[in-house]
Amino acid sequence: MKTALVLCLFALLGCSLAIESQASLASLLAMKAQASGAIDSAMGVLFDLKKASLTEKQDLENRNKTEEADGTRAIAELTQILNVAQTNYQNGVEHREFVEKEIEDTEKHIVWIENRLAEIERKLEELAVQRCHANALFVQSLKEHGDAEKAIKVLDAEIQRLSAAGELSEIKSLTDKFQLYGHLFEQDALKSFVELAGVDDITGHEDNNRGALELKGPDTNPGQRNLKGTLVTKVLNLLHKLLDHLAASRKNLEEHEIQAAYDYANFKAQSELENVTLRADHERKSAYLAKLEIDLEVARENEDR
How many CB atoms lie within 10 A of CB 116? Predict the structure, then answer.
């Protein structure tokens, strides 16, 4: 009986266990199904997360590329702006240096113009003084030439008169006065005339104290008379030669004076034309200098920005 009871109990227990096992298995199956659903859900979530992550990564990569391209473009634009700024600055420096050099050269040119104008004025004043002095000397020389010509003509007439009157001793005194104009004549011709006019055979006295010759009274020596005539002729010829030389000298003097006056007038005219050109250039350079000074101020302001 007890055995049967035990067996019943074991049977009941087995049934109970079987029931419980079945319930547990069902529960486990249910739990497995739920777990499988949860896993699927989780995998779906993970897949969605992965997909979203990949999409976000792609978006980030695309955004990074875009931003990198924008950054590169911005850097290039900034670099270009910097280069333009540096170029503009360098151009500004070069322009400022150019303006400074132009100012220096223009100032030097203006100083040269002023010095040239002063030099021309000084030369014109010097030449005017020289021409005034030269003209006075020319007038004086003309007067001396005229006086000398008169003296020669008087001497010529006197020699002929004294020769005809047989008073040749007076010729020596005439030649002494004539030598006052000696600087106007050719010295060799003048020396020959003076020596010839002062010989004993014409003047009638001896420089070596041999006594005077008797020029008046009967002509006792025709040969002596012929010699005197020949010497008088030579003296007159020399006078005519001196007169020709004087005429040539006066002509040369006049030609030189005319040429000098022409040269002075020509130089003065050319100088006046140069003065006109220089003054116009001075006015133009002065205006240019004023403009350059304004340009320099602007260039310095631009350079300091």
Answer: 15
- 24 Cβ contact partners less than 8 Å away, ≥ 6 residues apart: none
Residue 219, phi then psi, degrees to nearest 5: -85, 100
Residues 68-103: pLDDT tens digits? 888 888 898 888 888 887 888 888 888 889 999 999
Residue with tokens 């030269």, as numbered in its chain? 134
The tens digit of pLDDT for each residue in 277-287 reads 999 999 999 99
Angstrom distance (rounded) from CA 4 to CA 44: 57
pTM: 0.56
CA 302 to chain centre: 31
Measure CA 118 to chain center.
17
- The angle subtended at Cα 144 by Cα 171 and Cα 133, nearest 5°, is 155
Positive/negative CA dihedral, 301, 104, 288, 89: negative
CB atoms within 10 A of CB 301: 10
- Give the separation between CA 55 and CA 61, rounded to whole angstroms: 10
**DSSP for the chain?**
-HHHHHHHHHHHHHHHHHHHHHHHHHHHHHHHHHHHHHHHHHHHHHHHHHHHHHHHHHHHHHHHHHHHHHHHHHHHHHHHHHHHHHHHHHHHHHHHHHHHHHHHHHHHHHHHHHHHHHHHHHHHHHHHHHHHHHHHHHHHHHHHHHHHHHHHHHHHHHHHHHHHHT-GGGHHHHHHHHGGGGGGS-HHHHHHHHHHHTSHHHHS--TTS------SSS---HHHHHHHHHHHHHHHHHHHHHHHHHHHHHHHHHHHHHHHHHHHHHHHHHHHHHHHHHHHHHHHHHHHHHHHHHHHHHHHHHHH-
